[in-house]
């Protein structure tokens, strides 16, 4: 069970080539299925915890805090297991270093915004609209890459972003026409998209502080989040609401809460696993297809009736996201295939 990519990529590529096609296809199918099941289950479970009429728990910050706490405990447990029983799991050694925690703190603030706004968006909007509500991540990626990193974007990539924006506004319009629009949830969705983009940018800057280990970063991010959430729980009165919660002593409630934390931890692992067995481009395509399946499942499960234009907005968002991934993939491939100017100069000098 490898929980951290420390093996040689070239060795993995050679090993995968030696495997029969049927076996490789089966492995990929299983990994993609695992990613879909984990991701979709996490969304539906979080919706239950955040906005279930039967549960009636109005403490979104506490739900997020508890999921971070579960992740910290799982990381520490796996680290201890790897130390005590070498070879059982491939997981880095984790020791809380306050200096490293301070270095990661700016990213942790963005991370808190990302997971909190995600959950708040899910609390106020339906699962069917959840994908459209958080669909502006790609647009913010392009915008922030230009503002913060001074990276320009091609015309065709900008064109795909315009399709996403059009799908987002059409979705908002159709939710309003059906009387199910929550401006609060939509705002939280936009803020979540912004934080997801910022998180991706600042993760690259912070990774050297944790020796490039994603699992160490996960540990420190969630540990910092647990500390920073405490004053929020007090200020927003969620601790009082939790103490008055009728099902506080219910084993079923805590089992669902813990399961939500397990899914939150597992999604990081299965995402990495899917990229390892396929590619970043295939992972993005899989994520888009998963979002489509999730939307259809939500409409069927909650027995909702949606208009043609509502479905059109979803197709615009999903199609625009897929097209952006395809365009960027082609541009990156073209850049890699182009000879470096200095290499050309060197070869001309040798001739």
Looking at this protein, list some descriptive labels:
351 residues, mainly alpha, 0% strand, Solute carrier family 35 member C1, transmembrane helix, TPT_transporter
Structure description:
This protein has 351 residues and is mainly α. The protein is built from 14 helices and no strands. The longest helix has 31 residues, at 21-51. It is globular and about 50 Å long. The protein starts with 8 loop residues before the first helix and ends with a helix. Residues 4-16 and 345-351 have low confidence and may be disordered. It comes from Bos taurus.
- End-to-end distance: 52 Å
Oligomer: single chain
Query: Low-confidence spans: pLDDT under 50, at least 5 residues?
Result: 4-16, 345-351
Morphology: globular
| Total number of helices | 14
Strand content: under 5%
Major β-sheet annotation: none
Task: List the helices and strands in order.
Answer: HHHHHHHHHHHHHH
Q: Could you estimate the helical fraction of the residues in percent?
A: over 70%
How many beta-strand runs? 0
User: How much is the radius of gyration in Å?
Assistant: 22 Å
Structural class designation: mainly alpha
Average pLDDT confidence is: 88
Question: What's this, in brief?
Answer:
By secondary structure, this protein is mostly helical.
């Amino acid at each position: 069970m490898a929980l951290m990519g420390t093996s040689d990529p070239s060795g993995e590529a050679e090993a995968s080539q030696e495997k029969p096609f049927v076996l490789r296809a089966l492995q990929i199918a299983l990994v993609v299925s695992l990613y879909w099941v984990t991701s979709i289950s996490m969304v539906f479970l979080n919706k239950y915890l955040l906005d279930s009429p039967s549960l009636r728990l109005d403490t979104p910050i506490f739900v997020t805090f508890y999921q971070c706490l579960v992740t910290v405990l799982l990381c520490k447990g796996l680290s201890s297991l790897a130390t005590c029983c070498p070879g059982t799991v491939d997981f880095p050694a984790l020791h809380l270093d306050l200096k490293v925690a301070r270095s990661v703190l700016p990213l942790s603030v963005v991370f808190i915004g990302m997971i909190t706004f995600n959950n708040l968006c899910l609390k106020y909007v339906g699962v069917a609209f959840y994908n459209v509500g958080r669909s502006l991540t790609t647009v913010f990626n392009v915008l922030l890459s230009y503002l913060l990193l001074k990276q320009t974007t091609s015309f065709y990539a900008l064109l795909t972003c315009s399709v996403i924006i059009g799908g987002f506004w059409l979705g908002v319009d159709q939710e309003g026409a059906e009387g199910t629009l929550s401006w609060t949830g939509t705002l939280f969705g936009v803020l979540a998209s912004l934080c997801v983009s910022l998180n991706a940018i600042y993760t690259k800057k912070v990774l050297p502080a944790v020796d490039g280990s994603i699992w160490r970063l996960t540990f420190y991010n969630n540990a910092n989040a647990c500390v920073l959430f405490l004053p929020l729980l007090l200020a927003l009165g969620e601790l009082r609401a939790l103490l008055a919660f009728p099902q506080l002593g219910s084993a079923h409630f805590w089992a669902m809460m813990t399961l939500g934390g397990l899914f939150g931890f597992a999604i990081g692992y299965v995402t990495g696993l899917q990229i390892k067995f396929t590619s970043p481009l295939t992972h993005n395509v899989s994520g888009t297809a998963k979002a489509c399946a999730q939307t259809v499942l939500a409409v069927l499960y909650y027995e909702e009736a949606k208009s043609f234009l509502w479905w059109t907005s979803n197709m615009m968002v999903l199609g625009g996201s897929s097209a952006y991934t395809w365009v960027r993939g082609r541009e990156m491939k073209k850049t890699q295939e182009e000879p470096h100017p200095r290499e050309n100069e060197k070869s001309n000098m040798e001739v």
